[in-house]
Amino acid sequence: MESKIDLRSKFLTARKQIDIQKISQNIEKIILELDIYKKSNNIMLFYPTKYEINLLGLLADKSKNFYFPKVNAQDLLVCPYSSDVEFKKSSFNINEPCSEPVNPKILDLIFVPALAVDKNNFRLGYGGGFYDKFLKIVPDAFSIVPIAENFVVDYLPVDNFDVPVHRVITDVKKAHY
């Protein structure tokens, strides 16, 4: 099996070849129909980089409270979103909110970025371990990786600190792992 480092490089390159906008729109439509989304009030999104799934269209749903992560040392903080919240680039070149963090235990639903996922719902992240640590402190929140169908593989290398997500949503409606 390929190493995580080799797989990251492979998927980062492959991601540049897909129509991320169309895939993101398809995934958003599927999310809006999910019971877990409909039941959730406090939802954490991630601010997408150029080639990541973009779920920012969900912010139009005024019936939900949205939050974004902010890196603080080795931890993720949960910061509320509103239309007047400014975002600034972090040291990882990711837009982060300038709002004050809140208790992460308020979250009902967390969307988690990934380069790839496997059929056991383990994800290949960017190597910082931020989301694996974060998911351990919010075990009651439901976690979902939104991802293009062709980035779902049979198996990924898994370390003892890796935390699987509850569900994977792809741009192909039938594919909910």
- Between the first and last Cα atoms, what is the distance in angstroms? 22 Å
Can you tell me the number of structural domains? 1
Mean pLDDT: 94
**What is the subunit organization of this protein?**
single chain
CATH superfamily descriptor: NagB/RpiA/CoA transferase-like
The appropriate CATH architecture is 3-Layer(aba) Sandwich
CATH topology: Rossmann fold
Biggest β-sheet description? 6 strands, mixed
Strand content: 15-25%
Shape type: globular
The tally of beta strands, per DSSP, is: 11
How would you write the strand order of the largest sheet?
3-2-1-6-9-11
Secondary structural class: alpha/beta
Number of helices: 4
Quickly name the level 1 CATH class.
Alpha Beta
Helix content: 10-25%
Order of helices and strands: HHHEEEEEEEEHEEE
Rg measurement, Å:
15 Å
Extract low-pLDDT stretches: none
